[in-house]
Predict the structure.
Amino acid sequence: MSASGWAQNGQTLNTADTYISTMSSSVKIGRIFGIPIYLHLTFLIILPLFVWVFSSESLRIFGITLGFEGLDTTMAVEYAFGTAAAVIFFATILAHELAHSYVAIRYGVTIRSITLMLFGGVASMEEMPRKPGQELKMALAGPMTSLAIGLVSYVAMIFVRELAIGTVAAEGLEILLGIIAFYNVLLAGFNLIPAFPMDGGRMLRSFLATRMSNIDATRRAASVAKVLAAAMGVFGIVFGNIFLIFIAFFVYMGAKEEEQATVITESLEGFTVRQLMNENVQTVHPNISVQQMMDTMMATRMMGFPVVDQGLLVGIVTLTDTDKVPKERAGMTMVRDIMSRSVVTVRPNLPASDAIKLISKRNVGRLPVVDDSGALVGIVTRKDFLRMVEIMEARRKGATWGPPEWHLQHERRQHPPPPQT
């Protein structure tokens, strides 16, 4: 797919990163604007395919020759031109993603990476700007960059053609410029299709968000994307185009994930970890035996505990940690010997949206909550976030409900009203 997708890491419990494992299946090739650039393993499939298509085909469209097969030269020279065209084309896809990223950085968005892969390019952003106008400019930057590259390449192609040098090198350069021109204009046009996670879908969402809530705008834009994805899938099946089927799957999953991410982010807006955490936390001491800890697991049906010594969090132990202890030594091995000492913790006043990003980024199921002294004051889990999202969704649908009074709830917990008599 010669289209761009934006992966929003950390905004949902199950983001686009579940099917784009950038870090584990990619190779870092450098940095641009301080952004790490990766080549996904699927890029090793698509690049040779483009080299083969450009080198062994010759199709003329709108006065542009697409492919070097018609050159009066050897196959080696044709493949050399085809390789150059493929590499330059993917460089222009990188430029497309860099345009998105440059505008995003100007609005304070952190770009974690850009990855070239089977479907083109993916810019992984920490979050999306909330203002519709900012998202519109970010979305538009990519297609406009591709369109500019296409138009400049087309003008250069005409210039080389008018020179009428008549050599293989000149003819090959003309074809190369035509390929870059044609496919970049196609790239710009394809990305303007109003379907997440492509740029046109984000432009549609930003337009709708000026007339309704961000959640409603996202849901409507996602619905459009799913319909278009279904149409692309059917078209791909009917005409036997596997590539189009893959694109349809990517668009459908992207729309679904975008909708989920927006619902979670919007539902947790304004909440802190303190308002979601459980203050009654079952803990274990580092000096008890693994056998005693296993007995506590049996009694509480919990699969992990914070390890606390004199009120301070010193580690965390899970059922998986017991795998390293032989059965006959369970009574002699202490929890301190198997617990994990490197624990991801959060403060009570941390925004809930930041905490959910941390859970997704670190791939953990729970976060111990500690105060400034390191004392454990609570714990927050994935389920706590999901429950709150469900509650806020129900509240959002209840037109007669008032806004949540979380600041009052915490005071009531600290100073409960006297019982009525």
User: Anything to note?
Assistant: Residues 3-267 form one domain. The first helix runs from residue 43 to 56.
